[in-house]
Write a structure and sequence with these properties.
By secondary structure, this protein is mainly beta. It has helices at residues 51-56, 71-79, 128-132, 136-139; strands at 2-16, 25-27, 30-33, 37-38, 66-70, 93-96, 108-111, 115-122, 141-143, 149-151, 155-161, 163-165, 170-175.
Amino acid sequence: MIEAASQVGNVLAVSARRGHHFSKTPSLYIRLLNGLGVAGDAHMGEKVKHRSRVRRDPTQPNLRQVHLIHAELFDELRGKGFVVHPADLGENVTTSGVDLLALPTGTRLHLGADAAVELTGLRNPCIQIDDFQKGLMAATLDRDRDGNLIRKAGVMSIVIADGDVRPGDTIRIVLPAGPHRPLLPV
């Protein structure tokens, strides 16, 4: 791993929720458990927990233990007429000051004093986003200059170190050794 000294951000909000619901519940803190995810969250576990993925193959490893979204997305969506707050889109950690979408697969985010996650890929937005607010799914998608789809609805990760995460905690970024692989939907 290579240290990325220039990228340091903050945790803006944390959330979790038992049961499978689109939005999560804002919390004062969440506890990350190595190899499992967020304690008490519906998506916690070694094997896949997202219902559509469980139907396909319940033996898959859970690469979506912790969902992170950059708060800057909420500002962008506000400019398009949407009102979105931390936890609304189902994320466990809302970040500030980190360009999550630009980080490569395998990047490690150290959250607060002890917790750490490793990025596994992009969240692939689903139609439930439109159930939350009509037209929101399209607003979380874009195209680059070459016409490639850009998914902006956050990144997914696995927990690699236990610890509590709170709003205001620092995020320290450690990039993997190169060559870097871009984040792809998981």
